[in-house]
Design a protein that fits this description.
- The structure is a single chain.
- By secondary structure, the protein is of the alpha/beta class.
- The protein has two domains: about 130 residues, Leucine Aminopeptidase, subunit E, domain 1 (3-Layer(aba) Sandwich); about 325 residues, Aminopeptidase (3-Layer(aba) Sandwich), CATH 3.40.630.10.
- Helix content is about 35%, strand content about 20%.
- It is built from 15 helices and 20 strands.
- The strands form four sheets. Strands 7, 8, 9, 10, 11, 14, 15, 16 and 18 form a nine-stranded mixed sheet that branches. A six-stranded mixed sheet has the order 1-6-5-2-4-3, with helices on both faces.
- Helix 9 packs across helix 14.
- The longest helix has 26 residues.
- It is elongated, with a radius of gyration of 24 Å.
- The protein starts with a strand and ends with a helix.
- The model has no long low-confidence stretch (mean pLDDT about 95).
């Protein structure tokens, strides 16, 4: 979809659908401007909508060149943050899809937000709300594939809106790329096929990719990854991704680690199918988010040295599968007693986190659909955030929370107090891979903490990564959660003014 910004008079904007976000307390001169440009039909619709949050009205104006006008309420101006704008834009995307409109325009609303943030939110919300996954639909040929052109009508904020619109387009592309990876059939994303997809992404977007085969993984002694893979017919891979621009502001890299369990049956601790195993093609959503984020980082030419690590396998109950009672020797040298083969994600992440030490990282962030306990604690709107007590942990938590609020990928901190270690004590090994029923999300994070020796944060995205019913601009299925969060956090981190 082509995105542009124009300062043409509003009545001259020739589009199939013009979307007008309006605040409940919009100034009279703004509504008068809309009425003058678009006619009496819009005046009557404005009276009906009144700018109330999530209200909308579609009208066919007698004046101006726009064929249809959609008014979407934002609520009160002071409450109209970027997320409200995204939701309004997603409402517009839904109408555009239903009416099969090829060209869509937006009137950039006058809000306390900067024009750049408003432009980005409009394009993000519309692009994410327009997403459809049709790869396996046999009748998809000839079906409406969404609008081809999106035009933002701006005035004094034109320069900022233009920058924001372009960034919104790139970010949405990265999110939708992650959604596509999650939504793929497991048969089309074995570890080897997934690695090939990442290599293609790297060539297309300009970042480097290196893929280890099973022999290299064995040489590196990644006991967790190898154990989880034992029941599979497909070999594991370990993917390294590198973005290192010439003028990067950081000497030591920031490392992103994504859990890449391509499909999770639970292994010998077999999952029930309904509402459990039937969604486990999404157990690689952390890996998909890292790939999507790398695409955005490279396209935006972010001046930050970033490394991505993805341990990739599936978890199946094959004849050589690892079993409860096995003791594994991990990459770090630590031993782990397996009590549940369905707690496999933490095993492959532990090896990747241990290996990340070789980079002497400034910071490591991991993303994983790690526990059902996260869903119980925080639901499907907010991810769990945990960090270790190194190098200003409170500032790190706040920076990630702020990035989540700005981006719409919200996170909430949970404690990693040492008391939780007791639940991981093993009679026969250094630790066990499950901590019991209580605080399952936290004990999983505490397990991972055992393998890090640098500033680190863990994001359990199990709930928001894959939805069973659609939300405003998050579709049913893979959501691409984490891409916007990572990009926003790294954009802030790349700003030299924020690092001095």
């Amino acid at each position: 979809m082509k995105v542009s910004v124009t300062t043409l008079p509003l009545r001259e904007l020739d589009v199939d659908l013009l979307i007008v976000p309006v605040a409940e307390d919009a100034p009279e001169e703004h509504t008068a401007y809309l009425i003058k440009a678009l006619g009496a039909e819009v005046e009557r619709a404005l009276a009906d909508v009144g700018g109330k949050k999530d209200d909308d009205a579609l009208v066919y104006p007698a004046e101006g060149r726009a064929k249809r006008v959609l008014l979407v309420g934002l609520g009160k101006t002071e409450e109209a943050d970027a997320e409200r704008v995204r939701r309004a834009a997603a409402t517009g995307a839904s109408v555009a899809q239903k009416r099969e409109t090829n060209t869509v325009g937006f009137v950039v609303p006058d809000l306390p937000l900067e024009g750049e943030a408003t432009g980005q939110a409009l394009v993000e919300g519309f692009s994410l709300g327009s997403y459809r996954f049709r790869q396996y639909k046999t009748d998809a040929h000839g079906a409406f594939d969404g609008p081809q052109r999106l035009v933002l009508h701006a005035d004094a904020k034109e320069r900022g809106a233009r920058r924001g619109a372009e960034r919104g387009r790139v970010v949405a592309e990265g999110v939708n790329a992650a959604r596509d990876l999650v939504n793929l059939s497991p048969d089309d994303k074995t570890p080897t096929l997934f690695a090939k997809a990442v290599e293609k992404s790297g060539k297309r977007c300009g970042y480097e990719v290196s893929v280890w085969n099973k022999t290299l993984i064995e040489e590196e002694k990644m006991g967790g990854l190898l154990a989880v893979n034992r029941g599979s017919q497909d070999p594991p891979v370990f993917i390294e991704m590198t973005w290192k621009p010439e003028h990067a502001v950081n000497e030591k890299p920031i490392v992103l680690v994504g859990k890449g369990v391509m499909f999770d049956t639970g292994g010998l601790s077999l999952k029930p199918t309904k509402n459990s195993m039937d969604f486990m093609k999404a157990d690689m959503a952390g890996a998909a988010a890292v790939v999507g984020a790398f695409e955005v980082i490279a396209k935006l030419n972010l001046q930050l040295h970033v490394v991505g690590l993805i341990p990739a396998t599936d978890n199946r109950p094959g004849e050589n599968a690892y079993v409860p009672g096995d003791v594994l020797r991990m990459h770090s040298g630590a031993t782990v007693e397996v009590l549940n083969t369905d707690a496999e994600g933490r095993l492959i992440l532990a090896d990747a986190l241990s290996y990340a030490k070789t980079y002497r990282p400034e910071l490591v962030l991991d993303l994983a659909t790690l526990t059902g306990a996260q869903v119980v604690a925080l639901g499907s709107n907010v991810a769990a955030l945990m960090t270790n007590n190194r190098d200003a942990p409170e500032a790190r938590l706040q920076a990630l929370r702020d990035a989540g609020q700005r981006s719409g990928d919200r996170v909430h901190p949970l404690p990693l107090d040492d008391d939780y270690k007791e639940q991981l004590e093993s009679d026969v090994a250094d630790l066990k891979n499950v901590g019991g029923k209580e605080a399952g999300c936290i004990t999983a994070g505490k397990f991972l903490e055992h393998f890090v020796s640098y500033p680190w944060a863990h994001l359990d995205i199990a709930g928001p990564a894959f939805l069973q019913s659609a939300k405003p601009y998050r579709p049913k299925g893979g959501t691409g959660f984490g891409v916007r969060l990572l990009v926003e956090f790294l954009r802030e981190r790349a700003d030299p003014r924020k690092r001095s």
